[in-house]
Amino acid sequence: MSGGVDSSVTAHILKNRGLNVEAIFMRNWDTRDERGECPSELDYRDVKAVCQQLDIKCHEINLVKEYWNTVFSFTLDEYARGRTPNPDILCNREIKFGVLLKAITRRLGPFQWFATGHYARTISTGDSTMLYRGLDRRKDQSYYLAAVDSKYFSRTVFPLGLLDKKRDVRKLALSAGLVTAEKEESMGICFVGERRRFDSFLAEYLPQRSGDILSDSGKLLGKHNGMFTKTIGQSAGISGWQDKWYIYAKDMTSNRMYAVQNRNNPLLHSTMISTGPVHWISGMPPVLRIRFR
């Protein structure tokens, strides 16, 4: 349980099914934010409150060291190389469905099922269990679980996979009187928080080396504060222009970024993609789906 409404309702649903439910709070980060508060500690407080309401046991497992070594260090390394990683995908594969499951077994012994509050579904056919999108397309989180080895899904349940966040989950939380029923949804990365600029956070760990932002014709448009501060397709943040500029390329050797105006500029599009290693989760090459907003 994370301390949010989704995992709270997940526990509530399983408890109402008559199952023996025990909550696990996974602590991945323990530093304080700019207000002197530790978001992780505040979330743990909410988890304990919900567990008390549901009359279920609550266990805290500290994986700060493992998260730093496996997820955070990799994330910093990718940004230092000018790439934009997704730490949530790595966390699910290496921590939540890796280190955490082993830690639970060591501490509590064997267990039958592992449940999370993800908006996703699984379907078992024969000896295989495949991952499917949650029915609430706005909240679907199968993307973040796609790198997890499918062997773990045979004993994983996603009670929210068939539910709609606004229509069903909030209503269930309110009807059950859960203390997290009206808690705002967390949108930030766990180690950054929601009130800080991500580039400012990264600047605490990566060297800031300013460089030029050029147009596709080579005209100097402005300066950047480090190659990690912008990703491809992101607004360049250049003031003084009527139309926005968008980053379409980064040259790590020259420490330069390149930008164009108009989101539909062909330089922002691509007909090729380089990827690897590939993790097929359905036993056959799927139709490619690019996640975008």
From TrEMBL:
NCBIfam families: PRK00143.1, trmU. This is tRNA-5-taurinomethyluridine 2-sulfurtransferase. Catalyzes the 2-thiolation of uridine at the wobble position (U34) of mitochondrial tRNA(Lys), tRNA(Glu) and tRNA(Gln). Required for the formation of 5-taurinomethyl-2-thiouridine (tm5s2U) of mitochondrial tRNA(Lys), tRNA(Glu), and tRNA(Gln) at the wobble position. ATP is required to activate the C2 atom of the wobble base. Belongs to the MnmA/TRMU family. PANTHER family: MITOCHONDRIAL TRNA-SPECIFIC 2-THIOURIDYLASE 1, TRNA 5-METHYLAMINOMETHYL-2-THIOURIDYLATE -METHYLTRANSFERASE. Keywords: ATP-binding, Disulfide bond, Nucleotide-binding, RNA-binding, Transferase, tRNA processing, tRNA-binding. Its EC number is 2.8.1.14. GO terms for cellular component: mitochondrion. GO terms for molecular function: ATP binding; sulfurtransferase activity; tRNA binding. It comes from the Eukaryota. It catalyses: 5-taurinomethyluridine(34) in tRNA + S-sulfanyl-L-cysteinyl-[protein] + AH2 + ATP = 5-taurinomethyl-2-thiouridine(34) in tRNA + L-cysteinyl-[protein] + A + AMP + diphosphate + H(+). It holds the Pfam family tRNA_Me_trans_M. GO terms for biological process: tRNA wobble position uridine thiolation. Gene3D superfamilies: Adenine nucleotide alpha hydrolases-like domains, HUPs. Residues 200-259 form the tRNA-specific 2-thiouridylase MnmA-like central domain. It comes from Coemansia pectinata.
